[in-house]
Design brief:
The structure holds two protein chains of two kinds.
Chain A lengths: L2 E5 L3 H11 L1 E6 L5 E4 L20 H4 L3 E8 L2 E4 L7 E6 L1 H14 L7 H8 L1 E6 L21 E5 L3 E6 L2 H9 L4 E3 L18 H5 L10 H5 L7 H5 L6 E7 L6 E8 L9 E2 L3 E2 L4 H20 L9 H4 L7 H6 L2
Parallel strand pairs in A: 2-6, 6-7, 7-8
Antiparallel strand pairs in A: 1-9, 1-10, 2-3, 4-5, 4-12, 8-9, 11-12, 13-14
Chain B lengths: L3 E6 L5 H4 L8 H7 L1 E5 L11 E7 L2 E3 H12 L1 E7 L1 H5 L27 E5 L9 E3 L6 H12 L11 H7 L24 H4 L16 H10 L4 H11 L5 H24 L1
Parallel strand pairs in B: 1-2, 1-3, 3-5, 5-7
Antiparallel strand pairs in B: 4-6
Classes of the chains: A alpha+beta, B alpha/beta.
């Protein structure tokens, strides 16, 4: 597919053209970098170009609590949710692959999450090539795929933009700030430095280590704060609650909330029985879901190697290090 | 039949009670749904009726409090410990972790009829059906609780820590700035209201279900914060609920009883 070029000085024009028809979400610097909606030109100066944002784009696809349906005694009614067309800008390859993995889980042959599907169909994924990893990430070990609509590679004066999908190409054609170019993406452009850290051999053999006592080293430090789950771009587990109305109690809506496997409440079932009582079991469950269980089902690891679970952990529990030492 | 509801308070600042009339959007609907028999901030105080639901605020720290509590308990189907003081002893219970000599001079010496006793959460004395913690309790949670009770359902307390909501609100972790934040220790449900505003969590909602207090102490130690400072802050709201603090409490009590004994002997 053809490549495009965006001059850096035209970025503001690019933004104003995009924001005519789309919401524009980009990594915005603040006390902590996170993906926020860009509403004016001034916010463009706050875009984080270099470092991986601590907060992933997850909240766009999986809000804190979202209504699934409305009920009235015995009848249920769909919730009208028409997501606006959105451009998700500045996603790194790890974030993009996390969306790819989320697609596998939530939009497959057996099951399609209509809310997720609608959001995905109305969003355009614009990647930003990551030049250098940080001390926690290890995406180079995780066999990531080129999964994006458009991908920006930064050069001195401009961005060379690679298009990957028809959706991305259609979008690029509409935006006049983007010009077609014959320049190809060089192998040099695709390099990401300092992004390997995990012992791949051990990662592939992780099933053998399930009974290892070494996991205790990590789990005994765990504070059960759920930061690892909340910061993970690919964790997608959820739970449901009912929210009745106050005056007409038989009416209400069912809400979907994000859940966390690091807590006892995650496995609490009828009779107040908890089947993953030990902290060590919960600690292992997250890692095994990421590296083994998902792979058994979908052929790839759920983990994308962004390292946020370690970077955002108050105790910096480095499970990669623990695994490497197995 | 509308449920008969009462709101009572023992020793406290009445701030938790106030958070009910401050539910400005919902208060009229709530009043319409229940038969409010007693609420000293809105109408008269009426302790002799029978109640389906009672919100009980405050800490038990003298004999009159205990009398009211026991009387209310006898006539109530669902008793709710309402607010930090009723749930965990709150700030008044900090006294239990301080040597008597440090606060003795503050007592009302000329008013012996104020027979004070060790401040205790209400479930130390009577059985309590539900806890709605917080200083003051979270207003959305009050409404959520009321809905469940009106539906005749069991109310499930929020079972995740403050960090869960704080992270979902995309706040910068205050621990990274070296602040003494107890988000990891504390039961959530408050939408991380303090960290949202940049203030550290003091743990007013009591301990979360999966607390790892030892590692929290080492976490602060590694950051160079004196352990005593952290311990003192834990006792502000959660001392009476931390098993780990029981030892301190016991030692202090032994110490005090010894002192009293020696005083009496001297007399």
């Amino acid at each position: 597919m053809s490549n495009y070029v965006l001059q850096k000085e035209e970025f503001s024009a690019f933004f104003s053209q995009v924001s005519e028809n789309y919401d524009f979400i980009a990594p915005i610097k603040g006390k902590e970098t996170s993906f926020e909606k860009v509403t004016n030109d001034d916010m463009l100066n706050l875009i984080e170009w270099d470092e991986l944002p601590l907060f992933p784009i997850k909240h766009f696809f999986q809000p804190k609590d979202e209504p699934i349906f409305k009920y009235d005694k015995t009848t249920a009614k769909d919730v009208n949710s028409k997501p606006r067309k959105t451009v998700l800008f500045g996603l790194r390859l790890c974030d993009l692959n996390a969306i790819h993995h989320r697609d596998m889980a939530l939009m497959n042959e057996d099951f399609t999450d209509p809310f997720y599907k609608e959001r995905r169909e109305n969003s355009i994924l614009i990647g930003l090539h990551c030049k250098k990893g940080d001390e926690y990430c290890f995406c180079g070990d995780m066999d990531l795929h080129d999964f994006f609509d458009l991908m920006l590679y930064e050069h001195d004066e401009c961005f060379i933009i690679e298009t990957k999908t028809d959706k991305g190409l259609k979008f690029a054609k509409k935006i006049t700030a983007l010009d077609r170019t014959d320049k190809a993406i060089h192998a040099n452009d695709r390099i990401t430095e300092n992004n390997t850290r995990i012992d791949k051999e051990k990662m592939n053999k992780i099933a053998d280590f399930f009974t290892s006592e070494k996991w205790e080293e990590g789990s005994k430090l765990c504070l059960s704060c759920t930061a690892c789950n909340m910061l993970c771009p690919s964790c997608y587990c959820f739970e449901f609650t009912d929210e009745p109305e106050l005056v007409l109690l038989h009416k209400g809506q069912r809400m979907r909330n994000i859940s966390s496997c690091q807590l006892k409440c995650f496995t609490r079932v009828a009779g107040d029985f908890v089947f993953r009582k030990e902290k060590n079991d919960r600690f292992k469950h997250r890692i095994y879901h990421q590296l083994q269980y998902f792979k058994e089902k979908h052929g790839v690891t759920l983990c994308v190697g962004c390292g946020r679970c370690i970077r955002g952990c108050p105790k910096r529990i480095d499970w990669v290090d623990i695994l490497n030492k197995m | 039949m509308k449920p008969k509801v009462g709101v009572f308070g023992a020793s406290g600042c009445a701030g938790c009670m106030l958070s009910i009339p401050f539910l400005e959007d919902e208060i009229l609907d709530i009043i319409g749904q229940v038969n409010l028999l007693s609420f000293s901030l809105i109408k008269g105080r009426n302790i002799n009726d029978e109640f389906d639901l009672v919100f009980f605020e405050g800490v038990i720290c003298h004999n009159d409090d205990l009398e009211v509590l026991r009387k209310v308990r006898e006539k109530t189907k669902i008793l709710v410990a309402f607010g930090s003081c009723a749930c965990t002893g709150g700030i008044p219970a900090t006294r239990n972790f301080v040597d008597e000599s440090k606060f003795n001079h503050l007592r009302h010496k000329k008013m012996d009829f104020i027979a004070d006793r060790e401040p205790m959460p209400i479930d130390h004395y009577v059985d309590v059906e539900y806890h709605l913690p917080g200083c003051p309790p979270s207003q959305p949670e009050i409404v959520r609780f009321l809905k469940q009770v009106l539906l005749g359902k069991d109310f499930r307390p929020f079972d995740k820590p403050v960090c869960y909501e704080c992270k979902l609100n995309r706040n910068r972790c205050l621990l990274e700035d070296g602040k003494i934040c107890f988000g990891t220790l504390t039961q959530g449900g408050c939408d991380a209201i303090c960290p949202n505003g940049g203030y550290e969590c003091w743990g007013c909602r009591g301990p979360a279900q999966d607390v790892n207090i030892e590692e929290v102490y080492t976490l602060f130690k590694d950051k160079g914060i004196p352990e005593e400072q952290v311990r003192n802050r834990v006792t502000t709201f959660m001392g009476m609920r931390m098993k780990e603090h029981d030892k301190t409490l016991k030692l202090l009590r032994q110490d005090q009883t010894k002192k009293q004994e020696t005083k009496q002997e001297a007399k």
